[in-house]
Structure formats: structure tokens, C-alpha cells
Amino acid sequence: MIDDQALDWRNARVIPGPKAEILSDLAAVVADLERVDQILAACLDQFSETALAQLDGSTLASAMVLKSALIESAIIAYARCFATGRRERLRPEDIYRDRPQGQESHRLFITFRSKHIAHAVNAMEQAAVLALIGDETEMPVKGLGPVVIRLQSFGDENLVVLQKLTRHARAVLQPRIAAQVRELLSDVRNLSTEELAALPENGFSVGDFRGDALHPRR
Q: Rounded to whole angstroms, how far apart are CA atoms 215 and 218?
């Protein structure tokens, strides 16, 4: 790879073509996996079951909301790496080859993402209307209201499993990225000065949420 501090990126050029697209996709996937690892590390450090046991009341409730948000964010980012889209997706049978337990754990996290985080189609979220019934000396029905119960977290051991999946996927991809860099670098070094000058200049832009950024990037 390249030492970012040693180069002047103002003179960088964009390399087109299928090989560059594959390398870009791999790098984007690894960036997602690194983000998952960072989120889980923060979650296990700041909102572990041991840390939460020291809290109570509104402080505990706030911490649980934050932990739930971190977990859902991590699982969504992890699932993106295996989802169809404009970039080349990972395939669990490739990444977790010869690791049947890894494939099964992967399947459970993807199902959790699909059936609990993205869609409410499971028993981890339940809602009902409850009536508060009085005794014979009181009003028969004191009142009623809706009650919603939703799983906010699960054991830290499950977060550790996801962290291991994430780190294994990164370990599988790193040699592939290095090989792709070497191959593409060899190709680019064979270009003439004129061909290098004709390459598009570096012009990264992530767009705007309300603009065209949500349109397909390729």
C-alpha cells in the first residue's frame, strides 16, 4: 500500500477499468469491516454487561439506547459487505470457507439484520394493548394503553462472535488487495507519459443527501 504522508495527492490520477473497480470495491468493503470492528470495540469497552451493571435508572436507560444503536449500526455495516449493490459483494461461502460455524454465525447475524433491524417480522418485537383490571371494590377497568417490547441488546458474547467474523473477513481480503495493488501498479507503470497525463484528475465528491448522491454511482 501507500504511505499517505509521503505523497502529494494533488497530483493523483484516477485509474479506470475493471481491475481498478475490483480494487476499489475491496477497499470499500474493508473500510466497512474496519468500521464494524471499531464500533464493536467501543461497545464492548464502554457498554459491556459489566459496565451496564453499575448503572441504574435513566442513566442505564440512556446507555441501553446507545448500545442498541451501536449494535444495529455494526450489524448494518457488516451486512452491507455481503449485500448486492453497485460494488462487488462478499460471499460467505468464500470468506468462511472451511469454517461451517462461521457460516452459521454469519447467517444468524444477516437474519437478525433482515428480520429485526430492517423489518419487524419476528418475536423480538411485540406490541399489545393491556387493560388494567381493578378488583371487585374498584372500577372494573382502571385504564388501558398500548405496550411495546423490543429487544435492544444481546449478550456481549454475540458481539465478540461478530467481531471475530469481521476480523477474519478482513484477514482474508488483505492479501487479495495487496495482490490487486501489485498487478494494477504494474499495468499503470507501463503506461506512457501521454497516457498518464490523459487520466482523469482526482475529484472525489460524496455529494449531498438531498442531491444526486443517492443515485447509483456507476
A: 9
Question: Does residue 56 sit in helix, strand or coil?
Answer: coil
Distance CA 41, CA 35 (A): 10
206 close to 129: Cβ distance less than 8 angstroms: no
Q: Which helix H or strand E contains 115, and what residues bound it?
A: none
Q: State the cell numbers at 94.
A: 468464500
CA-only gyration radius of the chain, Å: 24
Which pLDDT tens digit goes with each residue over 157-187?
999 999 999 999 999 999 999 999 999 999 9
Instruction: Give the residue from 98, 99, 78, 93 showing the smallest Cα distance to 30.
Output: 78
Number of other CB atoms surrounding residue 48 within 10 Å: 13
Neighbouring residues of 33: CB distance < 8 A, sequence distance ≥ 6 = 77, 78, 81, 166, 169, 170, 173
Residue whose C-alpha is closest to residue 1's, from 212, 180, 190: 180
pTM: 0.79
pLDDT the model gives residue 84? 83
Contacts with 131 (C-beta within 8 Å, 6 or more apart), sequence order = 141, 143, 144
